[in-house]
């Protein structure tokens, strides 16, 4: 691109039913290219799978620097700086282990029977709904939200009113600053009140509080900081898990051979789950990194301090890595997919994400093998205001 040419504005498409042509063009001709973020910042966009792996594994491309004050930003900062800094405070105090323990593989295995019971109850409600029914509201959104509440140990009835606040706190388009401040105050206030409850069930919130209370007074983390971290964790868990499941269900219902195969198996084997994760176009934005030094990537020199966006979902649709990438192939070797990232910042919630997706698909295909989309795929409306892609609704019949 000539130096005086204005880069294209990223992201290019908010739809989740197909990869936009702009992504394909860059992947083929300019796998690392200049783009403009929604904030107007210049960034490098990586769309090639091999280069994405290299970017994830290069310690000079830093996630920590991407979150630091003054670094170039991909999206508006809808959370106050204190909330972002709270994560560092929690890490320094040694309390982050409570979150990691709550979503560790052994804890997720223990949670699986409850997850199945919960999914079946939600499908009972779906069966009683008028048709066409909204699979997104009744299931794709509700089930991951229930899982997040279970992990945290918070009442499920409290969660639904928080969804709009979470979405406001993680936007891709700018709104008035006063809206963000008021929204965060409400989200933070809820978790501050949750920490004060004496009757919390076992979960990350209670263990978090007990661990903090057991520390010497001078080493305790202030409740306001704990509440900010809980709000962040709740939001991040909700946005990602819902988007993955919603996109996967739309894709399966659109590609009937894969849907019918899962119905026949009455199971979603591990390799099938990995293929569905690879196929999912749930990341509306890129995964940000900031260069701490000059870095050569794919013949391009990224200057120290520059922003790099790794488009993991585009890389997962790279035909050089996964032939016929737009087709769901349940027998495909998907080793190397980047749905949970790679390297030091590999998503710590991967075990929970895999379990949620597997249980959701198995229970749905067993209960409603004749389910189908009630509208043509192209008529499904997709949100264009969030960090992750998700449909407004998934109308279905059976």
Automatic annotation (TrEMBL):
Stated name of the protein: Cytochrome P450
A GO term, aspect molecular function: oxidoreductase activity, acting on paired donors, with incorporation or reduction of molecular oxygen
Similarity remark: Belongs to the cytochrome P450 family.
Short name of any one Pfam family annotated for the protein: p450
Domain of life: Bacteria
């Amino acid at each position: 691109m000539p130096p005086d040419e204005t880069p294209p504005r990223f992201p290019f498409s908010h739809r989740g039913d197909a990869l936009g042509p702009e992504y394909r063009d860059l992947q083929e001709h300019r796998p690392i290219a200049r783009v403009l973020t929604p904030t107007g910042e210049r960034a490098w966009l990586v769309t090639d799978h091999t280069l994405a792996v290299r970017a994830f594994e290069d310690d000079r491309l830093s996630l920590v620097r991407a979150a630091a004050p003054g670094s170039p930003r991909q999206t508006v900062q809808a959370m106050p700086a204190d909330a972002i800094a709270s994560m560092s405070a929690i890490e320094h105090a040694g309390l982050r282990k409570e979150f990691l323990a709550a979503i560790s593989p052994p804890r997720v295995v223990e949670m699986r029977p409850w997850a199945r019971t919960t999914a079946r109850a939600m499908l009972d409600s779906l069966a009683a709904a008028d048709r066409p029914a909204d699979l997104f509201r009744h299931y794709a959104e509700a089930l991951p939200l229930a899982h997040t509440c279970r992990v945290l140990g918070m009442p499920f009835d409290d969660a639904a009113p928080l969804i709009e606040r979470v979405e406001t706190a993680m936007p891709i388009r700018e709104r008035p600053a006063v809206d963000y401040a008021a929204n965060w105050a409400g989200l933070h206030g809820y978790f501050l009140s949750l920490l004060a409850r004496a009757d919390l069930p076992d979960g990350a919130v209670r263990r978090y509080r007990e661990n903090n209370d057991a520390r010497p007074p001078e080493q305790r983390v202030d409740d306001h900081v704990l509440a900010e971290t809980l709000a962040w964790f709740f939001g991040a868990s909700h946005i990602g898990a819902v988007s993955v499941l919603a996109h996967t269900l739309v894709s399966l219902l659109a590609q009937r051979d894969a849907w019918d195969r899962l119905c026949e198996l009455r199971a979603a084997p591990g390799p099938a789950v990995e293929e569905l994760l690879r196929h999912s176009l749930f990341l509306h934005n890129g995964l940000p990194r900031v260069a701490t030094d000059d870095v050569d990537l794919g013949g391009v020199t990224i200057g120290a301090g520059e922003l790099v966006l790794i488009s993991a979902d585009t890389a997962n649709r790279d035909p050089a890595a996964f032939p016929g990438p737009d087709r769901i192939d349940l027998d495909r070797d998907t080793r190397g997919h980047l749905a949970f990232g790679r390297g030091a910042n590999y998503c710590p919630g991967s075990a929970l994400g895999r379990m949620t997706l597997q249980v959701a698909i198995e229970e749905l295909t067993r209960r409603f093998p004749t389910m189908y989309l009630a509208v043509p795929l192209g008529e499904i409306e997709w949100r264009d205001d969030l960090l992750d892609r998700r449909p407004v609704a998934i109308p279905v019949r059976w």
